[in-house]
Amino acid sequence: MGLTAKIADTSEPNLAVSIRDVNKWYGHHHALKSVSLDVEAGRRVVVCGPSGSGKSTLIRCINGLEEFQKGDIVVDGVPLRPDMKGVEKVRENAGMVFQQFNLFPHLTVLDNCTLAPMLVKKVPKAAAQETAMRFLEKVRIPEQAGKFPGQLSGGQQQRVAIARALCMMPKIMLFDEPTSALDPEMVNEVLDTMIELAREGMTMVCVTHEMGFARKVADSIVFMDAGAISFAGTPQQFFENNDNARVRDFIGKINHA
Ligand code: ADP
Questions:
Q1: Residue of the nearest CA to atom 23 in ligand 1?
Q2: Pocket of ligand 1 (CB under 6 A)
């Protein structure tokens, strides 16, 4: 009995995120219908699907920005129950990048990056600033450290948002349509930053319609439809000979957008 349990333990994959039978309602609207998804550490998952299919709701549930009514979510070993116990710990481990950047407009780029480490993790100011500059260099905008978000382009603001999330030393990065609000010429600078993160082995869950990025970076693609996962597989399985009519329709529309 004990031996069986041990074997089972050691063969368990190292799960960064485990989502089991999660159900979420907004009032009467059943937004997530028994969604289950495992993300192993170091993996990149792209979540796509038509508008209103529940992608954003799902990713927001992973770091407790949305409550869910049924099911289990475990992020890096920390259970996030429907009652939201564990949410602070989960947010420390899971960095989030939003469509609309969500930077604090009244704080400089540097202060945006140091606020949470100082406040939540009690990192001393000098050390927080040193870390922030390291990540601003990584996203290639250290020279903007003293500026305010409003003085930056959308692409630069989103790279600050990525640096800000990285300053918390997260184990997982969550992206909710990070390029959707950007002018087309700025999309690649943000995608390139994300590709670099992926190459370094960061665990990533990205809601995006950027299918070039998905092809290049994703280990698996999850397709959501009407609040449920209707397909999950490798990019190759997703793009080639997919017998899921909704996926084929979606790819066709994206390609002709
Ligand atoms: P997606 O990210 O795939 O576009 P969402 O997760 O944003 O989809 O939304 C899924 C469904 O839940 C949609 O029908 C949307 O209208 C609804 N919804 C999202 N947020 C709310 C909310 N705060 N209140 C009520 N309904 C919502």
A1: 26
A2: 26, 29, 31, 49, 51-57
Interval 67-95: pLDDT, tens: 999 999 999 999 997 777 789 889 989 99
Considering the domain boundaries, does residue 245 fall inside one?
no
Residue 146 sits in a domain of what CATH number?
A: 3.40.50.300
Ligand 1 probe mutation, 23, 24, 25, 26, most atoms within 8 A of CB: 26
What pLDDT, on a 0 to 100 scale, did the predictor assign at position 160?
98
- The residue nearest atom 11 of ligand 1, judged by CA position, is 52
Q: Looking at the domain assignment, is residue 254 inside a domain?
A: no
Q: Which residue's alpha carbon is nearest to atom 22 within ligand 1?
A: 26
Size of the chain, expressed as the number of residues it contains: 257
Q: Give tens-digit pLDDT for 221-244.
A: 999 999 999 999 999 999 997 899
CA 65 to ligand 1 center in whole angstroms: 13
pLDDT at 242: 83
Beta strands 70-75 and 15-26 are antiparallel
Q: What is the DSSP string of 171-226?
A: SEEEEESTTTTS-HHHHHHHHHHHHHHHHTT-EEEEE---HHHHHHH-SEEEEEET
DSSP 142: G
Taking CA atoms only, the protein residue closest to ligand 1 atom 18 is: 26
Please count the structural domains in the chain.
1
Quote the domain boundaries for residue 170: 4-227
